């Protein structure tokens, strides 16, 4: 198979019109080419050579740790998350009702991180204090009194993923989840349902889920006096465990020995390992495991090479480095230089003073005078020699494009989102906005808007292709925690950021936390769409002039959010298909009723929607009437 760049591009062009409910062919091909170039991932090693050669853990999967009771399953699971934290900085959420009292469980982790017996004659107070402080910031134990269902457990885990960036979720053990089974549900049905949810949860959040599960009682080998080593089908409850888990690890102690059997019983993806059984040594003092090949101190289970304590990082940003999120290339649109975009460094664009004269003219002497600022901006537009629809250059913050900044012309995402905080929506708190933005560790930059009446900020996001979902979460957080209303047009990844000037711009030079939360829009929009489709009071010819006149007379703004603004434009294009100039004029008149009206932005939005408009567009002039009635009733 020839997979040269030319052929791949041709394939992409041929696949563009496939159904939207399939995996994007472009994404699939690019990801496969990347995998081919980089090689198959090896996984996460624990630092035990004999085990790492056989099997490695990985994110985005469900791994079951099983064995008969009291054979070290929980001990091994604790060792796994400790090693993943030491080696990769991965934080963990722990749902382990079996490990109570909780301070006893914490003591085990102290031993694992200090490689010492938990005893005041061995561990100093300073070591203890430093270690438990570190553990409190990396391992999060669920409050078992407040997590009474699987839904609540996963909601708590999701919150830890969003706020603490945990990469491992430990559920110890299955018995504690099994008792949550709804009345009347069969055991096999419950097992299948839970495991399916756990697998999907691990995939959706790119985390490792470790589920501890007991096996049925095993018989004893009469020769070795050891229990027979169980297998995956020995797990008590259902064969679903083997079918749905990605990996299954069996743990069993050896009688009269410090050795432990680690049996890899299932590996879904062979690049992470294979089915095999090995033995490792167990240190009873620290609770850590080490290679069987390592020499031990005679008469003990201690390795001859002294295990060193984990070095507690100086600050909280373990395994983290400061990333310059602004040092990226973005598309620069400047119609004075033509319609095609060029490239510019984002930090340079945000901090330059080249546009200072234009921006200061727009702001005038009284930066808080909204009306005069708008008048000066429009005056400048009218008299700007050679003006062609855009007074200042602009860049899309969240994405780059092949040519035009449109959804269908996407080239790549930038992992950034820009938010607007307008004065008209935040009059009571606008003076405190700089102070608030500086206090938020997710904000990498903020500065004044073009008219100087509000602020805009840039935030790096975890899921680069979920700009809208991140926006809705930000909108909720800013409203609930800071009483700040964001401009909801920022949810569109094609949105442009016009050049501005602020000598007091702020750049966060410390470690910037990725914003991880995502959310969905309120159901109001969905309900509105349903009602719009079923509205029967649309038989008569709709008079656009009459609607506009009443809106102007009563101050009714039917463009009160981004979606409605687009609907108004599309409904006018539907009504005046052969006269786009007339549609544009009406679009401006309806938009002028908004406090956020901007002539340049309005023109740009109309141009964008004209290019995207199709005769099959489902938004008709009836939508205009529906928006008018809805907004009028809300007055």
TrEMBL record:
InterPro entries: BT4734-like_N, DNA_helicase_DnaB-like_C, P-loop_NTPase, PriCT_2, Twinkle-like
A GO biological process held by the record: DNA replication
PROSITE patterns: SF4_HELICASE (PS51199)
Protein name: SF4 helicase domain-containing protein
Gene Ontology MF: a single term: hydrolase activity, acting on acid anhydrides
Span of domain SF4 helicase: 37-296
């Amino acid at each position: 198979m020839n997979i040269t760049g030319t052929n791949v591009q041709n394939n992409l062009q041929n696949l563009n019109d496939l159904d939207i409910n399939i995996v994007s062919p472009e994404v699939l091909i690019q990801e496969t080419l990347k995998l081919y170039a980089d090689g198959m991932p090896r996984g996460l090693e624990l630092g035990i050579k004999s085990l790492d050669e056989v099997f490695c853990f990985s994110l985005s999967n469900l791994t079951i740790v099983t064995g008969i009771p009291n054979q070290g399953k929980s001990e091994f699971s604790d060792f796994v998350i400790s090693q993943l934290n030491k080696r990769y900085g991965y934080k963990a959420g722990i749902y382990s009702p079996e490990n109570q009292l909780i301070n006893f469980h914490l003591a085990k982790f102290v031993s694992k991180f200090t490689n010492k017996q938990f005893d005041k004659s061995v561990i100093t107070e300073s070591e203890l204090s430093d270690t438990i402080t570190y553990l409190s910031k990396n391992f999060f134990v669920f409050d078992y009194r407040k997590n009474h269902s699987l839904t609540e457990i996963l909601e708590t885990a999701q919150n830890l993923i969003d706020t603490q960036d945990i990469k491992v979720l430990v559920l110890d053990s299955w018995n504690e989840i099994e008792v949550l089974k709804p009345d009347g549900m069969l055991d096999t049905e419950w097992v299948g349902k839970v495991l399916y949810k756990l697998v999907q949860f691990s995939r959706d959040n790119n985390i490792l889920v470790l589920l501890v599960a007991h096996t049925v009682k095993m018989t004893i080998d009469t020769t070795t006096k050891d229990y027979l080593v169980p297998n995956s089908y020995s797990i008590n409850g259902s064969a679903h465990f083997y079918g749905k888990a990605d990996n299954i690890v069996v743990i069993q102690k050896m009688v009269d020995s410090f050795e432990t059997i680690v049996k890899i019983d299932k590996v879904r993806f062979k690049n992470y390992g294979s089915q095999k059984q090995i033995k490792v040594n167990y240190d009873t003092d620290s609770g850590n495991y080490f290679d069987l090949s390592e020499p031990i101190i005679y008469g003990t289970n201690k390795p001859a090479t002294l295990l060193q304590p984990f070095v507690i990082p100086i600050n909280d940003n373990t395994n983290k480095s400061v990333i310059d999120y602004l040092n990226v290339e973005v598309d620069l649109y400047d119609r004075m230089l033509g319609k095609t975009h060029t490239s510019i460094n984002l930090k340079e664009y945000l901090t330059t003073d080249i546009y200072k004269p234009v921006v200061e003219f727009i702001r005038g002497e009284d930066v808080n005078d909204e009306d005069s600022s708008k008048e000066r901006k429009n005056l400048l537009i009218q008299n700007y020699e050679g003006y062609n629809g855009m007074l200042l250059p602009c860049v899309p913050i969240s994405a780059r494009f092949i040519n035009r900044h449109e959804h269908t012309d996407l080239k790549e995402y930038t992992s950034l989102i820009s938010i607007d905080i307008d004065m008209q929506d935040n009059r009571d708190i606008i003076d405190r906005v700089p102070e608030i933005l500086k206090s938020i560790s997710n904000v990498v930059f903020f500065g004044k808007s073009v008219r100087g009446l509000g602020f805009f900020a840039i935030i790096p996001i975890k899921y680069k292709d979920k700009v809208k979902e991140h926006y809705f979460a930000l909108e909720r957080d800013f409203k609930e925690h800071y009483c700040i209303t964001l401009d909801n047009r920022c949810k569109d990844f094609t949105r442009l950021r016009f050049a501005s000037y602020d000598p007091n711009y702020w750049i966060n030079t410390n470690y910037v936390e990725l914003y991880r939360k995502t959310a969905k829009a309120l159901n109001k929009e969905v309900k509105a769409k349903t009602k719009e489709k079923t509205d029967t009071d649309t038989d008569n010819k709709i008079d656009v002039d009459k609607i506009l006149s009443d809106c102007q007379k009563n101050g009714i703004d039917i463009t009160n959010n981004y979606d409605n603004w687009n609907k108004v434009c599309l409904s006018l294009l539907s009504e005046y298909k052969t006269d786009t100039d007339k549609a544009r004029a009406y679009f401006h008149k309806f938009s002028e009723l908004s406090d956020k009206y901007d002539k340049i932005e309005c023109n740009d939005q109309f141009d964008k929607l004209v290019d995207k408009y199709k005769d099959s567009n489902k938004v008709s002039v009836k939508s205009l009437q529906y928006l008018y009635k809805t907004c009028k009733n809300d007055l």
